[in-house]
Amino acid sequence: MLAITEFITFRPTIHHEGYRKYYRFSFKKEGEYQCEITALIFDVASPAEVVYGTEHWEKCPLDQSSLLPAGPLYNINSPHGALGHLSFPHSECSSEDQNHLMVAHYKNENVEMIKPSEVTETHIKIKVTEMSLFGLVRRLLNYKTQSKAQVLLFLRQLTEIKKLNVFLLSSNVVLDDVQEKQKGSIFIETSSHCVVLEEEKYSVSCDQENAHVQPDTYDFVRDYGPNFPPTFEIFLNNDVKGLTLEVFKSTRRDASVWSRRVWLDAGLMMACCVSGERLKAVRTRLIEGLNASVIRDLLDDMLHMNVLNDGEVESVKEGQTCTKDKASCLIDMVRKKGTSASKKLIYKLAERDPALYVALGLHIQSVD
């Protein structure tokens, strides 16, 4: 089993090229490293830069009569020989189901099935040589399998009501990918883990008498994107500040798989806070967390959004020598321009570095 103490966690830099998003990180020495965003574990054989991101499963054709996706499809690239092994997070509960997992490697229009060299409660480990598309797959079974899942909540303030989007997804779906589709909503952070049955019917309920929930039931299937529509939608009166949510088997009302008390007013109150004050509150940690690449991206964003002019951007890029000074100058320059400018910086930070955005608690800030 992979021991937690044996690897180092890291937060990659996030880049955007049009509609494509990818992660980049430079490993300075050999060892095992786990990505904070994707939970992938890289067994690094020599110092190297790794570039990776999720792709649509349509790019890796599978024999649908015998194989199904069991995790996101990743496009992973690094210098030849830099990586010895890769470990992919899985959502299987039983050791029997874990034995049916493999990794599909798609290269040169061919799909190779790689058997795991090690199976743990959380990851499937494989030996790798050539880099390209990799994705966890499972054999098609003739019985319902238990799966580790997660319940994700996103709140949106509509004109006269509140709308709560409820997602019931496999545990190895990347939160960052779901958040990409929920921009403009407030992510309600709560303990999300539960266990569900494949193709079992599930429903969601809340303790608010006037709430409207749709649909009535959902047959759980593993969805690895790319769109991630909400599993359930709950429409609430504006005066609702908190509620108790429950996900249960539709065939048995007493068979609850997840139940939490959820507070909505805290998220909306934070959404109403002045963005300049929000930036001020997280200023020190934001300066520590920003890297040179993200700062360059944010400067370009602020220029294109008419928050900063050419001279101001140039003064940050050329007038400051170290990364922390550049970050400090950027943040303070934007803050002084008022609430609207600060909102735009927070909005672009969510896009450029979602992990830092969440780590700073800014994910409960709704940006218009």
pLDDT under 50 segments (min length 5)?
1-5
Largest sheet: 7 strands, antiparallel
Helix/strand-derived category reads alpha+beta
Q: What is the CATH topology classification name of the largest domain? A: Chondroitinase Ac, Chain A, domain 3
Percent strand equals 35-45%
Beginning-to-end CA distance, first to last residue: 45 Å
CATH class of the largest domain: Mainly Beta
Summed over residues and divided by their number, the pLDDT gives a mean of 88
How would you sum up the global shape?
A: flat
Strand order of the largest sheet: 2-3-6-7-13-9-10
Radius of gyration: 22 Å
Helix content: 10-25%
Descriptors:
inflammatory response; 24% helix; NLRP_Inflammasome; Chondroitinase Ac, Chain A, domain 3; Immunoglobulin-like; 368 residues; FIIND_dom; cytoplasm; seven-stranded antiparallel beta sheet; Death Domain, Fas; disordered N terminus; 9 helices; alpha+beta; six-stranded mixed beta sheet
Polypeptide structure, described:
The protein has 368 residues and is α+β, with helices and mostly antiparallel strands. The protein has 3 domains: 4-139, Chondroitinase Ac, Chain A, domain 3; 146-270, Immunoglobulin-like; 273-364, Death Domain, Fas. The chain contains 9 helices and 23 strands. The chain has helices at residues 95-98, 175-180, 265-272, 275-289, 292-304, 310-319, 323-335, 339-352, 354-359; strands spanning 7-10, 13-17, 20-27, 31-35, 41-44, 48-55, 67-77, 83-89, 101-107, 110-114, 118-119, 123-127, 133-139, 146-157, 161-170, 186-188, 193-197, 201-206, 212-214, 218-219, 232-237, 242-249, 256-263. It has a 7-stranded antiparallel β-sheet with strand order 2-3-6-7-13-9-10. The protein has a 6-stranded mixed β-sheet with strand order 1-4-5-8-12-11, with no helix packed on it. Strands 14, 15, 16, 17, 19 and 21 form a 6-stranded antiparallel β-sheet that branches. Strand 22 and strand 23 form a beta hairpin. Helix 4 packs antiparallel against helix 7 and helix 6 (310-319) runs antiparallel to helix 7 (323-335). The longest helix is centred in the C-terminal third of the chain and has 15 residues, at 275-289. The protein is flat. The chain starts with 6 loop residues before the first strand and ends in a 9-residue tail after the last helix. 34% of the residues are buried. Residues 1-5 have low confidence and may be disordered. Its main location: cytoplasm.
